[in-house]
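Researcher: Good morning. I'm working through a list of sequences from a screen, and I'd like to move beyond sequence-only analysis. For each chain I'm collecting a predicted structure so we can compare shapes side by side. This is the next one on the list. No need for commentary yet; just the structure.
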Amino acid sequence: MQATQKELLAIAIFCLTYLLISGRRLKILPLNRPAAALLGAVLMVGCGVMTPEATYRSVDYDTLVLLLGMMLISAYLFLAGFFDWAADRILRYAATPQALLLYLVLTSGILSALLVNDTVCLMLTPLVVAVMVRGKLPLPPYLLALAMSANVGSVATLVGNPQNMIIGHLSRIPFLRFSASLLPVAVAGLAVEYAVLRIGFRKVLGQAVIHRPETQPRPLDRWLLTLAFAALGLVFAGFVAGLDLSWTALAGGALVMVLARRDTHEGLKLVDWHLLVFFAALFIVVEGLSGTGLPDQIYDRVHGVFGASAASQAWNFAWFSALGSNVFSNVPFVLLAGKWIGNFAQPELMWKVMALATTLAGNLTILGSVANIIVVESARAHVQFGFWDYARFGIPVTILTTVMGMALLLLLH
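Model: Good morning. C-alpha cells for this chain:
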C-alpha cells in the first residue's frame, strides 16, 4: 500500500472512530464508546495501516494497570458499604440544604482525588439519588455538584482521572511534585464551583427542606473497610516514595482481593472493564493517526500562536487544551498533544497546564467528561438534563476555575 493511501485511511478511520465515540449511537451502527474504539483498532489492522505487532506496542499498559488497581480498591470500598455509609452520614449531619451541597462538593472532590473520578461517579450517583429522594430534596443542584466536583477534585493527583494517569506516565513527573502544584488548584476550584451552584440555585435551595431518613444504610463491613483504606494508604505512600504508579496501585488492589475473605467475583464484577477496553483500543487508533504525521503538521501550523515566553505559552496552551479536549475528548487530545510538550520552553509546566485545562474543561458541557455522562445517565429515571440545563452552570464554572487555576499554577511554579 502506498504511503499516501495509508495516511488517508488512518485519518478516515480516526475520524469515523471519533464520530462514533463523541456522538449518539447511530441506528446503522449502534455502538457504545468502547465498541466504537475497538472497531477503530480493528480497522487500523484490517486496512493495513498498522501491523498487529505495532498495535501491541502502541498500547500504554502502565495506564491500564494503574486504572485496574485503583478500580479494584474502589470496588472493595463499595462492597464494604463505605459509599452508602458516607452518603447517609452527609444527609443526617447537614443542617441545611446549602450545607448538604457543600458536604457533597467536598466528598466528591476528595474521593475523586484519591480514586478515579469516573468510578466515584459510577458508585456515588445511585446513592446520591436515593438520599435526595428520601430527603425530598431537588436533584439538579446536587447531581451537578457531584459531577463537577469529581472533575475538579480529580485534577489534584496523577490518579484522579485517566488523562492525568497518561500525563503521569508520559511526563515522569513525581507524584508529590505534581500534587504540590495542582492540589491548590483543586481546592480553589471546588470553592468556585460551590459558589456558582450556591448562587445559581439560591431560590431552589432556599425553599428546600431536608427530611431525615428513618431507614439505616446497610451495615459496614468494618474488616473490609479497614483493609481497603489500609491498602489505599500504602498505595499512596508508595506513590510519594516514588515507586512505580501502576504496579503500586495494582499491588494494593491485589492485596485487598487476597485478604478480603470475599468471593473475588464480587470485586471483579465492579471493575469497569468497558473503560479498560476503551482506552486500550483508543491508544491503537491514536497511534495509527500519529503515524501519518498529521499531529506534527497541526503543531507546525499552530505553535506560533502559543508565544515565546513560558507564561504566554502556558495561558495560550491552556485555552487550546480546553477547546481541544471538548472537540476531541480529553484522553485522545492528551495522547495527541502530548507529543508536542517537548517543544515548549518549560515542558514540565506545560504537562501540568494540560492536566489542569483538560480536566477542568470537562465541566464545560454535559458531554465534556465521562463523569458527567455517568451522573446524568444514572439519574435519568428521576430527572432529565438538557444541554443548556448543564451548560449554564458548566460554562461559568469552567471559565472561572481555569482562570483561577492557571493563576495559582503559574504563581506556585
